Amino acid sequence: MNTSRKKEKAAGAPGPEAVVHEFPPVYDADSRILILGTFPSVKSREQHFYYGHPQNRFWQVIAALTGSGTPESIEEKKTMLLKNGIAVWDVIASCRITGSSDSSIRDVKANDIAGLLQKSRIRAVYANGTTAFRLYEKYCFPQTGLKAVCLPSTSPANAAWTLPKLLEAWKVILKD
Length: 176
Hints:
Blueprint: H1 3-11, E1 17-20, E2 33-37, H2 42-47, H3 58-66, H4 74-83, E3 86-90, E4 92-97, E5 106-110, H5 113-118, E6 124-128, H6 130-139, H7 141-144, E7 148-151, H8 163-170
Parallel strand pairs: 2-3, 2-6, 6-7
Antiparallel strand pairs: 1-4, 4-5
């Protein structure tokens, strides 16, 4: 966002902002599963990487399930994912959104998930939360033909799901 746009947003009430996903998926030719989020949070957009909010449990969950230490740096996160055959991306390429609120998402343009599947060995898709699942089903499933499995969101907004409950639900990814 340019400086004048930042000033404009700060002066008025926050509202939906047109935003483009600015960082690539994490995957390689050996990736076997794809975990899809909805769209990067404000914190993730600032860091230019996935699940950047410090209270998001995504990295803890994946580390625990893969028997890895919780990664700190972006490079450590990429290494852990790729070593374990995990690809990560978001359903949305661009949209209008207020802050990090999934419920405010409008004017969705989806990422080319089908194209990613063709460049890898991915045979299973998991959605990190119901919004990612719903948007994948609406915008991507018709092109991929690959059903997604909906997992509970690792977002701090999903506080009803404790880390042990998330681990129990997310262990389904280990079968792939």
